[in-house]
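User: Second chain of the day. Same drill as before.
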Amino acid sequence: MHKMYEEYNVGLTTARAKELYKEGYGNVQIDNTAKTTADIIKENVFTYFNLIFLIMTILLVAAGAYKSLTFLPVIICNSLIGIAQELKAKKVLDKLSVLNQSSARVIRDGSEDTVFIDRLVLGDVVLLTAGSQICADAVVIDGEVSVNEALLTGEADEIIKGRDCELKSGSFVVSGRCLARLSRVGVESYISQLMLKAKKMPSAEQSEMVRSINRIVIAAGAVIIPIGIALFVQSIVIQGNSFAETVPSVVAALIGMIPEGLYLLLSITLGLSTIRLAQNKVMLHDMRSIESLARVDTICVDKTGTITDNSMLVADIVLADSGYTDDDDQLQKMNVLISDYISCVPDDNITMHALEDFFKCASGRTCLSFNSFNSKYKYSSVQFDNSTYIMGAPEFILDSNYDLYKDAINRFASKGLRVLCFARYLGGAMGTEIFDPANENVSLKAPEGSLKGAYCEPLAFILLQNPIRENAKETFEFFNKQGVDIKVISGDSPVTVSEVAIQAGIAGADKYVDASLLDDLEISECATKYTVFGRVSPEQKQIIVRALKKQGRTVAMTGDGVNDILAMKDADCSISMAAGSDAAIQASQVVLMDSDFSKMPRIVAEGRRNINNIQRTATLFLVKNIFSLLLALFSIISVLTYPLQPSQITMVSLVNIGIPGFFLALEPNNKRISGNFLVKVLLKAMPAALTDFFAIAALVVFGNTFGVKPDDISVASTFLLAIVGFIILANISAPLNAYRLRVLLGCVLIMIIGAFLFHDLFSINYVSTECVMLFVLFAIATEPFMRYLTRLFTFIEKKFTKKCLNSQ
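Assistant: Same format as last time:
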């Protein structure tokens, strides 16, 4: 153990800190989510399906079917593009991470300094205040803090930590101020040990879309080997075909069943989103949040920092004992008293900063004890030599005589002003008895806990205001048009919050409720009825989020303070402001680096574009996969050779899936996300997949019946497959605008040019007159057949969606 400095107020020297860091005692953080370059390359190259492709390549080379290797360049490009895209996204995120590094206030060389948390070392003395994330295990050596360990234990109770108490990394300070010496850092800290355990466990909960794509890939991976073996045995043993004849047809069937581009599509789309958002100063801690935001139908916001900007100023101070008239002498005395008060309370938030800027004439009065602001009880307190004072929400402080001042307080609040009450504590509640305020020798200890039943003499009302953000109206108007509900959840007076929300143009902002008057059950019942919730405790914020989710809502929670963390933890997606507390930033999935809530519409639009376009392209992939599976099973059962060649499958996939999927993914798409991803893509893919299967299966049977050559059937099947592919592409692109029409016609043109100029490469040979007639007949039949199947599966989808909604 290294020798520590005895004097905590001196801390380590800078030189000693550097030595300890070099010796491996630095607080180097473990990132449980970040991928290394090696991880990215390994994930894109060493995959199950790439192994299947390698085996198929070896078999084709052994069979001498070199023309059937056209899929190989596509697979190599897929891997290279995936690696390049993820590396690019990693580079952008790494740069943004540097800007978003958490820092700590540390005592070095006898003075306070600010350093990044990964530069802290064992034995450093850190200063912790409200909102600080405890970044390494530590022991309190001076002061007292209230700590919340909910992010570690799930328990929301605040724990008082005084001298010699242990602080666990990963918890956060709710109130108070202390000096603490780091006892375990880096991999040895509590939070790092949890992360190491988490790495050994299955990956974190995945989004619905990623989970659905994984199911598709796993299902394809499970059936591909037995079906491949069955086709191989059937062709050689039963039909008596040669090895050279068998391998290309088996490979063609398997290629059609492999969703090789789905993961590439997912990684490219999410990677591009990450880059676009990063360029707009938005950082994602969790990629799942993109889908969550796309599905959001309810956003819970705080007033301060979201509707209003983060600046706060004192608008006025009004004396309580002078009939609300100005008295210069009394005001001056009150200014001095409040200045003394705020110099004793170590709270570090925008309210305190606004008070410090306004009240600057402290007399140096001696402070005997204090309690930092508590977000649950809504007040702070200070005990001087001859009296105790309280500052906070009027409704909580003036419990016994609030009605005397209610009208005046509401009058201020109705103008959008936040009202703080500054009062003298005279006993009751946590005290023993009520004392005469005229007795100058009385000295009550600062109270702790609820002031219910206490008596406080109001001295002044401090009026605070936050400017409404310049683009707040435009932002909330966007969400209103998109059908996204806004819930304003604040610790301020509901009247104040309602007025500010009305000015910001939030729909239903006149429907407000005082949460301090409600129990947990009533809060849950009010969650969907009201838009504005005032005087909300941190626990109540969490209850509101849970109640909304229970109603089937997809909820995003924005926050910038420790009082928002519990609700953020339970929300489907959590968003923090970079100007907020360290704890809120670390608990969130999305960080607005410039603390600008107006970026939210852009983030939601980005998420919707991704999910809608991935859903659309996944439908195209599934058409090919389902069709290939059905046709392979049909070939096995009917003892027929699989009619398509690998090169033909490659060409159709290119013009029906690859090229259109890429260009359509670039198009903005603000359509609201709803429903189950897997069910939707399956039901949309089934009409085209079944049309493909029945048309080509019938074509094969008819061809064999009338003696049409296998090569002719293969070519006719290719064009039939392409035609159905273009029909489903047109359906999922509806309504067709100029951009989508160009993509569709461009793909048709590429198909025609490829068939004529590269007919040898793609095995497109001259076909007989009989085959042409057969092909035309089936091509004409596919459109009505698919149209009626589409109606059937649309009806099934609506029934399924209705059933899901009724079950919620």
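The first strand starts at residue 103 and ends at 108.

User: Great, on to the next one.
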